[in-house]
Each structure stands twice: as structure tokens, then as C-alpha cells.
């Protein structure tokens, strides 16, 4: 049955696809017996001392708006944290903006930078919101495909080949969702030189930075000539297990942060004060929690990648984030069909790779932010599912 009100919807919104992740997991939510390797959310509860900070703020009656930029105490904590862990220095007064998650930070950064028709270049497979966010600001998305042959790192030569006149913004995400790809210093230096040559503004989404397992994370903003053209995006959701607090932040040159703040103050006003109170505690005293959780993720990563390869699902070892990205191409099923059948036949939920762009075809994303025991059970169920597929191929 058609809804006549559809004609009122803006064309650029009507053309957007629904999230391939959310639609899929609306089905999963109705299957309590399913094991979910899908949503990118830590299974850990936010550490108690961080929750307690929010509770204490509530008990003190801290229920009002804050400065649009966020509490000064929080911005000072962010400044100290990024200087210690990222070797980046930003002034709390005018170079840091607190946002409602990194998703808002990305959205308002694009809105502050992109004129209609400007082109935004990014690497994919990528987080599901990048291309739609570009569309929503009337920009033109320019994807750069990455490959499993080099663990989905961004090849600077491929970036140069994909560039088009009119490109204004480069979006980077290291470690990468959904592939766990990273960029070492040598790679970033080449990307930085290219950004300077083409006069690009860089949005560097580093939400998974603390969850780097092999080698040290390097922010492109630390490289020569990059601080003045980079907006560093980060937040509390992943490393601190604070997804529901919806707390992120952007750091960058004062003029760019001011432009973002203009958008933020009209669309969002400020991040929730209780979340900000929790964020102060996390940044000041939560590093041991980060290390503890990262160790658990690494154990899960090593197990699930080994199991996938044993089962005949080729899977590189992700060097960051908490996602495995195995290939299912050998079975001849589109990734969506593979994921649907796995869910309905063995009650295991993974995300079709195509949810992350055309470059994800032939892959699925499996999050190892799920508990270790559940990952083991999921592996056993996937083994049974693959036996069914192999039997079907043999009989045909």
C-alpha cells in the first residue's frame, strides 16, 4: 500500500538506502536463541567507576545544558588524553568540541566543510554511514577500493588514481570498520603528502585507535603539515565500552572547530551532561580498563580468525578494531544470502559485506566483541552450516 506522503520527502533522503546492518538485526532481535557476531558493540559493561561518575553527577543535580563545546573539565581531560596517547596538542578553549558520539562529529564536520557538489574521497569497505553522510550534505562520494591482499590497507597509489578534480575532503578510518585494516607511518606519510599536494582537508576517524593489536597506532595529524588540515575524530564508545553514553569529540584547527560548533549549537546544543561527567572519569582513570578489554579482544581475535581459516573461510588477521572479515566467495552465494541462510539455519548472525559498500561483496563481517564462549559456539554452528553448503554443492 503506497503512502502518498512519500512525495514530500526530499529527493536526496528518499534515495538513501536503509542501513544494511540495522535492517538485518531487526530480524536478529526477534531470535533470542541466535548468537550475534554482528553489531559493533563491546559486550563489556561500562566499568563501574565510570558509571558511578554519571550516577554521582545525577545525584548532585547536574541535569542542565552545558557549554555548546562541552564542559571545560572534559575538554581539558580530552586535551591531556590525546596528548598522552596520540602525541597531539589541542587547546581546550577553541580546538576541541564535544559531540553526541563520533557519528555526530563526522556529520557536522562534513556539513561545515562541504559545499554542494564538492567531492569527498574515502576508502571502502567502510563504515555504513560515510557515503550516506556525504549524500546528505549534497557532496559527491568518491570511494577508493581496498583489498584483502594487503589486509585492506589504503594503497596511496590507488588513492591517487581515484582522485578527481573537485575533491575537497579525504575521510580516513584507521583501524578500519569493518576490515580491521590499519595504516603504518610509512603509508600515512605518503597519504599526507598526497593530501597536501591536492590541498585536501582530512577527517581522521580514529575511534578504534586504542584497539590496535600489532604495532603502534599513528595519527595522520601528527605528521608534518597535517595538523592544520586535519580534524581528529574520536570518542568513548569502543575502547571504554561506553556506546550508550553517546559521547565523542573533534579536535582540530580553531577555525574548523568553530565552523563545526556553529552547526552543533543549532542541531544538538550539547552532549548530555551525565555522559560528559562519565567521560571525564574515563579519560582520567580508565586506561587500565582499556588495556584489560583490549587483551580480551586480542584473544578472541586470534581464536576466531584461526577458526575461520580452519573452516575454509579465508580471513586475514585484523590488526585493529574488533571485526573479522572472512571471504565467503567460494560458496557461490552473495554475502547477503550467505548471512540470511546462516542466521535462519544455524542461528548465527553476521553482517553481509555489501553493507559496507560494493568492495565488501563476497565477505561477511563477524564481530569478536561478543563473549569468548559464544564465539566458540558460533564457530561450531558455522562449521555445521558449511557442511550443509558443501553437501549441497557435491550433490549438485
Series of secondary-structure elements, N-terminal to C-terminal:
HHEHHEHEHEHEHEEEHHHEHEEEH
Q: Which percent range fits the helix content?
A: 40-55%
Number of strands: 12
> Rough shape?
globular
Low-confidence stretches: none
On the 0 to 100 scale, the average pLDDT is 94
Biggest sheet descriptor = 7 strands, mixed
- Compute the gyration radius: what is it? 21 Å
Which secondary-structure class do the elements indicate?
A: alpha/beta
Strand arrangement across the biggest beta sheet: 2-8-7-6-5-3-4
Distance between the termini: 40 Å
Q: What percentage of the residues does DSSP assign to strands (E)?
A: 5-15%
Count of helical segments?
13
Characterise the protein shown here.
The chain is an alpha/beta fold. The chain contains 13 helices and twelve strands. The protein has a seven-stranded mixed β-sheet with strand order 2-8-7-6-5-3-4, sandwiched between helices. It is globular, with a radius of gyration of 21 Å. It starts with 10 loop residues before the first helix and ends with a helix.
